[in-house]
Protein: Magnesium transporter MgtE
Organism: Methyloprofundus sedimenti
Amino acid sequence: MTELENTQIEINELSLDQVFILLEQQNIDQLQLLLSSALPGQIADILEAMPPTERKQLWALIPESLGSETLTFLHDEVRNALIIDMPAEELIAAAELMEVNDLADMIEELPEPVRQSIEDNLSAEILEHLETSLSFDDGTAGRLMSPDVITVRSDVTLETVLRYLHIHEDLPDYTDGLMVINREGIYQGKLLLNKLLTHHEDTLVQELMSIQHQAIPSLTSEHEIALFFERSNFVSAAVVDENNHLLGRITMDDVIHILRSEADHALMSSAGLDEEADLFAPVIKSAKQRTIWLFINLITAFLAAWVIGMYAETVEKIVALAVLMPVVASMGGIAGSQTLTLTIRGLALNQISSGNTSWLARKEVLIGIINGLIWSAVVAGIAWLWFQDIGISLVIAAAIVINLIAAAAAGIAIPLTLHRLGIDPALSGAVILTTVTDVVGFMSFLGLATHYLL
């Protein structure tokens, strides 16, 4: 293999290590060549993996043709840090190349003078679409949709449709069909491209359009949109207002973005972090973001410590209790987290309703009882071998059964309650569950020991 071929392979890989090496070597030509052959999503991943100084250096080298789309792949915090330092002319140029839904997400974060400057330089058509997008709440179909959609009427022939398509230089990405409307703009269905290309030109659109391709109401949440695409297996779907007027469309790439955001949210919220957080944000800023969650955890820890303090005299007299306390709490915590995870997943997939909640609760409690009996026997046996005290063995066995039943009940009750209150169970469910299992575990174990062993 020649040196040139080796270089080409390295360029196509776009590895983070390679970018760091080229920046350190100030090999600008090689780095620009590397970036010019990369995809915007790849560049965004590299940018998010770099400290602020190197990130700004790399951003300055990204070709203008890739810059605007790269911004749309970045998390909010990283994107905002970059656009703050961008010259107004460069920002305006990037905005003009963005899709309307991406521009709407970005423009809300900009200072008013910069935002006004961008809006003043947009065409009347794009500005109208932008105002429509901004009129919807973030996280809804109306905000997510793209106005870039080709429509046809149901009372025309396929020959007319084909002549109409020939006027266009290109079709929008992810166009698997044309949206069918009437003269008033009411959505009627979808004419799939495979039907258009394989049927006689004299055929009317209304004879071939698919009415099974249902439209998405503009106020539908992103989560519901993802479920809709999962169940329908569509490439694109129409978005309509309350009167069924066609507003735009949502495509598979939008759904992939939703799924990525939900995955990030589930992972980050379990630790009380924002999914848009910058891994390489300044130390003070990152510390502030994590302080609140640590404060909440501190309160729950003191609550568990208070319960232990209530039985300090018992622990002083029977030291073995202090050794075995973590076992009771840990078993309850693990069992509860299993139920909690399954319940949160069920809520996310709309698999839990008032009709099956009681059945699910009974199932989880029964699982708690069965596992409690099995593992209490195991732990009791270990405790007896360790301390040669049948009383301690029986007490810890009873405490584990009680805690696993409580953990199962809490694991399903906590997320259901938080969901009904409009609070994300993934954000605070684990902290509440840990508090419950610690308090119940310590109280049952030490309480039984105080009553029967002293």
